[in-house]
Amino acid sequence: ILQHPPKTLKMKFSSAISLLLVGSAAAFAPAPSSQSRGTALFMAEDGEIKPLRIGTRGSPLALAQAYETRERLMEKYPEMSEEGAIEICVMKTQGDMILDKSLMELGGKGLFTKELDTALLGDEVDICVHSMKDVPTWLPEGTVLPCNFPREDTNDAFIHKDGSVKRIEDLPDGSVIGTASLRRQAQIMAKNPTLKCVNFRGNVQTRLRKLDDGVVDATLLAIAGLKRMDMNDCATSVLDWDEMLPAVAQGAIGVQCRSDDERSLKYILGLNDPDTHACVNCERAFLEALDGNCKTPIAGQARIIDGKIKFRGLIAMPDGSLKYETEAEGEIDDAVEIGKKAGEELKAQAGDKFFEMMVEMSPQQVIGQLTK
């Protein structure tokens, strides 16, 4: 565990939250340039300048990632620094609007991408920026996701209400942990089945505010998101893979475009980090082989060490009573096949009955197991 020095949590959370203008694109926008070259970048048929339109959700984290994309484009391509070259298009997804239900009850990860997919296919935007762990393993026909930026730390941050507890194992029996993730819930309850997990949705600031208000005793968030918003001091500790195996594609940003859009493809391919892309593809192949959904706790992570790709994955019952794990390693070029085989191995280990139970179990039954 990488521990941060204890601070007064209430002040720390409040200060972190107040620094961000929630939902405002201006909160992350760099200062406008005073210099304009006045050159039309992309000319539409009617002679108007056509900017590169970036589609994004409106949460502070999503906006931070959209503006990171803009900065990377401007650094890589000088013409992207011209006035009007890039436009940020903010939209709300169903997952952003319905916060009183778990993702499992609402139907899964596509809730955060469907509206962006529709805008992309409807030529309302040119590229979409995603947190890769929110992206389903299938992409709409006519779109591709060929770009991942260099990956941030993939681990989960443990955040305790007053910073006095640094590990899940040290929480008193009966403590309440806020999380919307079945993956986290299953691993938490495998450590201590007396802990109670409650649905905890909303953006990072909303969750920290609930923690500050004493709604729960602790919560877990991806440290990558906290770092991207300069809020990593909110973490009580950072959990390594042995304590909490992260979600598939956690810590990775992906950029999607239309498969026939040569202009957008040219720009985003130049931003791709091959190592991150290989690891993310390995993890997503693992998830696809398991036919993963929001009713099945699944974790999977790959990293490149000494020129080889090394993978760890697990699946579990929602209450943590059963857990199956696997490890694999091989050549980077075989990343997808490594992930696929790891998923097939766990599927065989768990057996058909395990997955039939996951399919048959209603959201209310799963939640009942987690909150009993």
Walk me through this protein's architecture.
With 372 residues, this protein is of the alpha/beta class. The protein is built from 12 helices and 14 strands. It has helices spanning 9-18, 60-76, 94-97, 103-106, 114-121, 182-191, 204-212, 223-228, 262-269, 274-289, 335-360, 363-371, and strands at residues 2-3, 52-57, 86-91, 127-131, 143-148, 156-160, 176-178, 196-198, 218-222, 237-239, 253-258, 298-305, 308-316, 323-331. β12 and β13 (308-316) form a beta hairpin. The protein is globular.
What is the strand and helix layout of this fold?
Blueprint lengths: L1 E2 L5 H10 L33 E6 L2 H17 L9 E6 L2 H4 L5 H4 L7 H8 L5 E5 L11 E6 L7 E5 L15 E3 L3 H10 L4 E3 L5 H9 L5 E5 H6 L8 E3 L13 E6 L3 H8 L4 H16 L8 E8 L2 E9 L6 E9 L3 H26 L2 H9 L1
Parallel strand pairs: 2-3, 2-4, 7-8, 7-9
Antiparallel strand pairs: 1-10, 4-11, 5-11, 6-9, 6-10, 12-13, 13-14
Helix pairs in contact: 1-7, 10-11
Number of strands: 14
State the helical fraction: 25-40%
Q: How far is it from the N-terminal to the C-terminal residue, by CA?
A: 29 Å
Question: Are there runs of 5+ residues with pLDDT below 50, and where?
Answer: 1-11, 18-40, 95-103, 362-372
Q: What composes the largest sheet? A: 6 strands, mixed
Determine the structural class based on helices, strands and strand pairing.
alpha/beta
Q: What is the helix tally?
A: 12
Order of secondary-structure elements: EHEHEHHHEEEEHEHEHEEHHEEEHH
Taking strands numbered 1, 2, ... along the chain, how are they ordered across the largest sheet? 1-10-6-9-7-8
Quote the beta fraction: 15-25%
* Radius of gyration, in angstroms, nearest whole number: 21 Å
Mean pLDDT rating = 84
- What's the shape? globular
